[in-house]
Design brief:
single chain; alpha/beta; Rossmann fold; 2 domains; 7-stranded parallel β-sheet; 6-stranded parallel β-sheet; 14 helices
Length: about 375
């Protein structure tokens, strides 16, 4: 299928109320994944959508889901969206509530780490859509607090990531409990073999929407590599943080490393926050909200933030530590240059990282350019 389009949202057959919500949300024109997926979703077809990180996949399924559920009967929730992480689930709920407000469609989030009683109160509010992580959804299912029998539209978002995180068994249990007659939408940034296997099980005669080359960065990212020593990485990082208003996302490999780096940056006078899996859910929400609003200029995070965290206008992604897999490199740097914007991605490479950087360059099909020397840059011997 083509990767460019001149379609407008008006061309996609959406209601006036939804078009108004799209305009209020600041969307000017559909991205290629949206222009190709939305009409098929509106027709009730199963869809397998694959596109690069930062190309608008969330709206590609949220918009038609709202349209199809808006005027249905009241009662139990009829839409289910599964996501791999709590942060992504919360973000999707916010998108549903923003885009569905004019159609009286709202969502509640069912994720691990949140109070079960609070989630039950959310369910009693009568949401149209449940956004959930697989493990916590199963908890509710086994407890009898959520029935999967009424869902007519099911979305698996970042499905490749859910498989990477070991959710295959939970996904199969959930799929077995869902109605046979349903619409299933599967969205992903990559299409590994195990995801192809899952797709054959959960979708029927799907429309395939492939936009761009999977697992490659969007065009607006300028990538560079700094060769350095392990013990000089923090000094190198501090030398790069010169732009006072620039929003920067820094990735570390471990939670301990994120905490240590966060303290070093704070001592250097920077407004910094840290995000990783050991932080309480309330802390993680406050951290992301503070980063979005500019309270913190720098966010130091583990790979919990590599996918799904949609913070507008991140100017610079820095891989303080390279990720374990080349695909995660693509997802990390996809946090910048989202929705046709531009941004920078800088990676630190030590003598121990040569295998990782070669794997990344093999996936990209080209070398990552060397950065110009900075005051702290020291090449390994």
């Amino acid at each position: 299928m083509p990767t460019t389009t001149s379609a407008t949202f008006l061309d996609l057959g959406l209601s006036e109320a939804t078009l108004r919500a799209i305009t209020e949300a600041g969307f000017l024109e559909p991205t290629p994944i949206q222009a190709q997926a939305i009409p098929a979703c509106l027709q009730g077809r199963d869809v397998v959508g694959c596109a690069q990180t930062g190309t608008g996949k969330t709206a590609a399924f949220v918009i038609p889901m709202i349209e199809r559920l808006a005027d249905g009967p009241s009662g139990p929730p009829r839409g289910l969206i599964l996501a791999p992480t709590r942060e992504l689930a919360i973000q999707i709920q916010e998108a549903v509530d923003k885009l569905g407000r004019n159609r009286q469609v709202c969502a509640t989030t069912i994720v691990g780490g949140d109070d079960m009683q609070a989630q039950l109160r959310g369910l009693r509010q009568g949401p149209t859509i449940i956004v959930a992580t697989p493990g916590r959804l199963l908890d509710h299912m086994w407890n009898g607090t959520i029935s999967l029998a009424h869902f007519t539209i099911v979305v698996l978002d970042e499905a490749d990531r859910m498989l990477d995180m070991g959710f295959a068994l939970q996904l199969n249990q959930i799929l077995d409990a869902l109605p046979e007659e349903r619409q299933t939408l599967l969205f992903s940034a990559t299409m590994p073999t195990d995801l192809d296997t899952l797709a054959r099980v959960c979708v029927k005669n799907p429309v395939s929407v492939m936009v761009g080359k999977p697992a490659t960065p969007v065009a607006g990212v300028t990538q560079t590599v700094h060769h350095t020593r392990y013990e000089e990485k923090t000094r190198l990082l501090l030398s790069l943080l010169k732009e006072p208003d620039e929003s920067v996302l820094v990735f570390t490999r471990t939670k301990h490393g994120a905490d240590r780096l966060g303290r070093a940056l704070e001592q250097g006078g920077h407004r910094v926050a840290v995000l990783h899996g050991d932080r309480a859910m309330s802390q993680r929400r406050a951290t992301l909200d503070g980063f979005r609003r500019g309270k913190f200029r720098i966010l130091v995070a583990t790979d919990i933030a590599a996918r799904g965290i949609d913070v507008a206008n991140i100017a610079h992604v820095i891989n303080y530590d390279l990720p374990h897999s080349p695909e995660d490199y693509v997802h990390r740097i996809g946090r910048t240059a989202r929705m046709k914007a531009v941004g920078r991605a800088t990676s630190f490479v030590t003598a121990d990282d040569h295998h990782q950087i070669r794997s990344i360059e093999k996936l990209l099909g080209r070398p990552v350019p060397l950065a110009t020397k900075s005051p702290a840059l020291t090449r390994p011997h």
